[in-house]
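Batch 3, record 17
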Amino acid sequence: DQQVKQNSPSLSVQEGRISILNCDYTNSMFDYFLWYKKYPAEGPTFLISISSIKDKNEDGRFTVFLNKSAKHLSLHIVPSQPGDSAVYFCAASTWVRMIKAAVNKLTFGGGTRVLVKP
Amino acid sequence: GAGVSQSPRYKVAKRGQDVALRCDPISGHVSLFWYQQALGQGPEFLTYFQNEAQLDKSGLPSDRFFAERPEGSVSTLKIQRTQQEDSAVYLCASSLARGIDRQPQHFGDGTRLSIL
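Prediction for the assembled complex:
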């Protein structure tokens, strides 16, 4: 049962154009969403996050949009640069309240490989 | 360094051997997570520590997997009697988050484990 899905395994875009990455989730309890970027042989690097109380968050070239009713989020990269070529993961979390403290574990999608062509 | 440090970067072991993977989180980070990433998939949660307390180990695939963080800083993930299906990249992440505070997790570069 995959709670977070990235249905596009790959995306190719021309340098300077917009990259749009999509992510769908099924668990309505998710309330915090993140995008990570991963280069080969490196760990995921945090890019941008959004809380469920917002529908948009922007940081430089990166904007994340959240549509709670559709259980869908997207990452826009404008303009795309060759250095953006990587695998992008969306992740979601909810507070799982344990006895002593709340746990903020992440559930990841399968990733989308982005290739930005010069 | 300033980031999460994991060692070794690569580990090859024969089936049946025990392995130990180390994680040194960002200084001051209260929360520490272990994830397992199979080839071509996203990371999957294994276990969570808040300081030295292991508060969630629901993702550990079997009782051959054991994690500890005795002094609330460095953590070790141990796999006993390794099997071929244990081959994966093991990622460690740390976060400032405590309580209901929402903070991103920062990942190390992982340990790539290959079981022959």
